[in-house]
């Protein structure tokens, strides 16, 4: 179970338009052309590229617990996605090396480490309840666990948050700050490009402690976390924040949101991605884009990004056109649909967006399974684990097929690469 266990559960409703009057009349081609006019090829706000030069187009693949592992990310990148976010990783899970926390229901560590040369730039997302643990987890993430032993990372979390820094010192262990090949992991192009703090996940509190979106009810605690993480991570690595637009629709919670949102920038966070649903709403009903537009109007000098109801390529550009956001997070709209990124590039480059041919769909289905098999190589039965995990992707991919209902059925019971190939041979020729 993750930030949303099952998108067809009662905690989620299917695709619908966001609440944003007139947004559906906005011409996505005109928005794309305007972005390119203003910012040059790629249409990305240069303020964002100052932080991460390779973030060259105004959209990215969201963190999606249970989905956005290295395999899904690489497929997205091959279709033009400029940058991806890992799924939310609990601070405790990170510090315990993936074993400890009984209720650590988010991603496994190995799903969240950069997946080789192709998986960059990558934003690592963390979530948790304690400032020192979050700071130590952030450090472990950017050091990729290579500068200290697991025990040393855990010990780091026992310090005062203000004493937790990236620079390893003698008393923190034998680490000299360098990897076996003599380079610092920070200098490695394969490290994380930013650390994102999740203040959005609606999954319940644990042991009465806040985490994720529940921090919107206790903004002071969230501010301590942001301060600890921002101070711990070297200045050269941006810290960003994912937030819901409010905990609920009361005035008190709206004020909490604004207070925390302002504090994030005051503390030096590079940008905030605001999901236009409340925490209470989980994934039920439409998001609202007006609150996002209001934030941009209120603080045009800030980099603000948005999330919510981006189901197809047109909504990427309508959301930007409607709100003025610097970038848009593509979440459920890219599960089984990496072509949304190609289509977004098409629009930015003045081409008509193309739907995938059957051959293109087959190629992606083959590649995704192969990549997932590589990502899952440490499981006891990597092929069975991969096949089971790929079922949910197959079902989403099937939506592009003219016989979607029948194709779906043939993915439901796959147990092996052979089963997967049988389905492809039946439908994707
Ligand atoms: C299955 C699922 C898992 C998610 N996991 C994460 C996560 O780990 N981190 C995160 O920031 N957001 C997560 N989200 C939220 C999405 O990134 C996004 O903000 C949300 O789905 C709204 O966008 P959409 O309506 O376009 O899907 C998740 C959403 C879903 C449906």
What do you see in this structure?
- With 429 residues, the chain is of the alpha/beta class.
- The chain folds into two domains: 23-355, TIM Barrel (Alpha-Beta Barrel); 359-427.
- It contains 16 helices and nine strands.
- The protein has helices spanning 28-39, 46-51, 70-78, 91-95, 109-112, 131-142, 150-156, 219-232, 251-266, 290-298, 313-323, 339-348, 358-375, 382-397, 404-412, 417-427, and strands spanning 59-61, 84-85, 89-90, 122-127, 194-199, 239-246, 272-278, 304-307, 327-330.
- Strands 1, 2, 3, 4, 5, 6, 7, 8 and 9 form a nine-stranded parallel β-sheet that branches.
- Helix 6 (131-142) packs parallel to helix 8.
- Residues 2-4, 7, 62-66, 87-88, 125, 198, 200, 242, 275, 283, 287, 307-310, 329, 331-333 line the site of flavin mononucleotide (FMN).
**Which CATH top level class of the largest domain fits?**
Alpha Beta
Number of strands: 9
- Small molecules bound in the structure, each named once: flavin mononucleotide
- Helix/strand order, N-terminal first: HHEHEEHHEHHEHEHEHEHEHHHHH
Q: Tell me the Rg in angstroms.
A: 21 Å
| Tally of DSSP helical segments | 16
Fraction of residues in β-strands: 5-15%
Helical/strand content category: alpha/beta
What does the overall shape look like? globular
Residue share in helices?
Answer: 25-40%
CATH fold-level topology of the largest domain: TIM Barrel
Mean pLDDT: 90
CATH architecture label of the largest domain: Alpha-Beta Barrel
Largest sheet: 9 strands, parallel
CA(first)-CA(last) distance: 35 Å
The CATH superfamily of the largest domain is known as: Aldolase class I
Number of domains: 2
Low-confidence stretches are 99-107, 169-175
């Amino acid at each position: 179970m993750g930030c949303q266990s099952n998108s067809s559960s009662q905690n989620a409703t299917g695709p619908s338009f966001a609440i944003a009057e007139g947004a559906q009349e906005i011409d996505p081609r005109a928005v794309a052309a305007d972005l390119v006019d203003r910012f040059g090829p790629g249409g990305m706000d240069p303020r964002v590229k100052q932080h991460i030069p390779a973030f060259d187009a105004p959209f990215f693949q969201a963190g999606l617990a249970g989905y956005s592992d290295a395999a899904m990310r690489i497929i997205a990148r091959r279709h033009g996605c400029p940058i991806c976010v890992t799924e939310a990783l609990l601070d405790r899970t990170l510090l315990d090396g993936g074993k400890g926390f009984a209720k650590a229901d988010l991603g496994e560590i190995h799903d969240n480490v950069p997946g080789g040369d192709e998986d960059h730039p990558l934003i690592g997302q963390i979530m948790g309840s304690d400032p020192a643990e979050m700071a130590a987890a952030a450090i472990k993430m950017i050091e990729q666990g290579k500068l200290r032993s697991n025990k040393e990372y855990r010990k780091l979390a026992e310090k005062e948050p203000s004493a937790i820094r990236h620079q390893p010192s003698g008393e923190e262990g034998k680490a000299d700050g360098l990897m076996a090949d003599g380079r610092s992991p920070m200098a490695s192009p394969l490290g994380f490009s930013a650390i994102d703090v999740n203040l959005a996940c609606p999954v319940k509190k644990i042991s009465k402690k806040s985490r994720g979106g529940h921090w919107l009810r206790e903004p002071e605690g969230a501010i301590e976390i942001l301060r600890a993480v921002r101070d711990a991570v070297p200045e050269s690595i941006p810290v960003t924040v994912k937030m819901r637009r409010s905990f609920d629709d009361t005035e008190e919670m709206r004020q909490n949101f604004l207070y925390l949102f302002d504090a994030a920038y005051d503390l030096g966070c590079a940008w905030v991605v605001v999901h236009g649903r409340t925490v209470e709403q989980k994934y039920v009903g439409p998001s609202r884009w007006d609150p996002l537009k209001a934030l941009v109007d209120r603080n045009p000098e800030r980099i603000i990004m948005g999330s919510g109801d981006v189901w197809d390529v047109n909504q990427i550009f309508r959301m930007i056109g409607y709100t003025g956001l610097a970038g848009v997070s593509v979440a459920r709209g890219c599960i089984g649909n990496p072509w949304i990124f190609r289509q977004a590039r098409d629009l930015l480059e003045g081409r008509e967006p193309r739907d995938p041919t059957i051959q293109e769909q087959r190629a992606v289905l083959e590649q995704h399974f192969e990549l997932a098999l590589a990502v899952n190589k440490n499981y006891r039965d990597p092929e069975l684990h991969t096949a089971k995990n790929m079922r949910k992707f197959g079902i989403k991919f099937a939506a592009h097929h003219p016989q979607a209902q029948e194709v779906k059925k043939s993915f439901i019971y796959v147990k092996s690469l052979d089963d997967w190939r049988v389905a492809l041979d039946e439908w994707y020729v």
